[in-house]
Amino acid sequence: MSYGNHFLDSLPAADAQALRPVLREVRLEPGEIVIEQGGGVPIIHFPITAQLTNVIVYEDGSAIETAVIGREGVSGLAPFMSDQPCGWQVVVRAGGGAWVGSAVSIREQAYASRPLMEHLLRLAHVYEAQAAQTAACNAQHRTTARVARWLLVAADLTPGEPIIFTQEELAGFLGAQRTTVNEATNRLKDLGAIRYSRGVIRILDRSALEAAACECYAMHIEYKRRAGLLPDPEPASGA
Questions:
Q1: pTM of the entire structure?
Q2: Distance CA 18, CA 190 (A)
Q3: How large is the angle between the packed helices 167-174 and 143-157, nearest 10 degrees?
Q4: Is 38 exposed, middle or buried (CB count within 10 Å of its CB: 0-12, 13-18, 19+)?
Q5: Phi and psi at residue 101, in whole multiples of 5°?
Q6: What is d(CA 127, CA 190) in angstroms, rounded to the nearest whole number?
């Protein structure tokens, strides 16, 4: 069977079958907190159409979103694998379907199966690489290129669906002012790459959006491909 989650679908058949009895499909609602900051991770989520976001919550109540998790992966991966409290909150930013399962049961299966453990470690590497890359990108690249990159990443999580991003959210991800993000999205609209209205973004010309994005998007895709979370690119015709 196909799970609709790239991580689960990339597992060897034996591991995919072994996990099936401990997984159940659920509907996640926007704004639902699935992992508390500082709390344990008893259940992990494998998004299908839902999108989750990692959020750092400060003592004054302010919060910054740091990453989006979609059908490529797993919620709370590092604290799940280490059986440690989660250092961030995980919130549903876009409602949809997901597989959920007991962290204990899945961890036990990982200890018993080297291929499953290797898949988890590769995904952990991808997430760590993305975190480092995002920090560098925010310091090095122009806002328009970074906005284009984030929109491409978000679009890949739920292909064919509109992207739900307020300018405040984008500003938080990018570490930029809202006015700066507004200027960047207007440039992308002028290029004909996107249509943006009331927090709903539709990609009109993906090629134009990719051309406007910084090199970090291509690096992001390559990390995921090397981890086995994406199919190999199609060979060029005539090759």
A1: 0.77
A2: 50
A3: 110
A4: exposed
A5: -155, 160
A6: 33
Q: Are 189 and 125 in contact (CB under 8 A)?
A: no
Evaluate whether 82 touches 41 at the Cβ level (below 8 Å).
no
CA–CA distance, 82 with 63 (Å, rounded to integer): 25
pLDDT band at residue 74 using 50, 70 and 90 as cut-offs: very high
Is residue 96 left, alpha or beta, with left meaning phi > 0 and alpha meaning psi from -120 to 50? left
Closest CA to 151 of 80, 222, 84, 203: 203
Domains annotated for the chain, with CATH where assigned, are: 6-113 (2.60.120.10), 135-226 (1.10.10.10)
Dig out the tokens for 87 from the structure: 């250092």
End-to-end CA distance of the chain: 32
Query: What would the pLDDT profile of 26-61 be if each residue is shown by its tens digit?
Result: 999 988 999 999 999 999 999 998 989 888 888 887
Distance CA 86, CA 36 (A): 7
pLDDT in tens, 108-147: 999 999 999 999 998 888 888 888 877 787 778 888 998 8
Q: How far apart are CA 160 and CA 116, in angstroms?
A: 30
